[in-house]
Sequence to fold (261 residues):
Amino acid sequence: MHKTKIMGILNVTPDSFSDGGKFIDVEKAIKRAKQMIAEGADIIDVGGESSRPGSDPVSIEDELRRVKPVIEQLKGASVPISIDTYKPDVAEECIKAGASIINDITGLKDKRMLEVAEKYKASVVIMHMLGKPKTMQQDITYKDVIGDIKQFLKEKVDLAKKAGIKEIMIDPGIGFGKTTEHNLLILKRLDEFKSLGYPILIGPSRKSFIGNITGLPINERLEGTITSIAIAIMNGADIVRVHDVRECKRAIQIADAIRCA
Fold:
């Protein structure tokens, strides 16, 4: 039976949109990672810079100060560790510390990231984002949102393959330079990305499109998240990136069973 993988979100930031400040302390971050693993996470995704709409970038030094100690202590964990960064220097140091996956929200915009991934034989997540976090929700324009994202991902996958990267995942980037309608279309037509031939990662967890539809604040979007990931799984998602591992795991078990019936 197909088993959808769960990527547990571990933000060690003071300002992430959902859980900023909760796990900035290394001990709390490690405790949370172990909790998510116990609840069923297959990957732990560690991030040290918020990518919420309107956020400002942080320095390489500040990002490493946040994430590296956490990754060092998680080295040897029973699941792979992913570093959520678009900075090659951060990625390299974190791979040395124990990470094996690079989750790049800019879709390998910096060509040096290709060199880092190939050098250390790291897996990569190539995500689509329109613009950058600071401005991505200000001027959202596509000719064809699904077609444009597919073309972007195809081009980036081709670059990664030419660089010698073996393990590639693609992410259409829910909430990253998309309107509510765009996000709904991505979830509805997710199966169209299967033609690219790579595992699909999707990350709708607690995002604003759920709030726009339901009128609910961030801490009350669990049901919307579960519905979104269940539909994504039925439409071809292979990995889901979530905050609420235990609850989403239960929903995923049912969605996987229906998908494979």
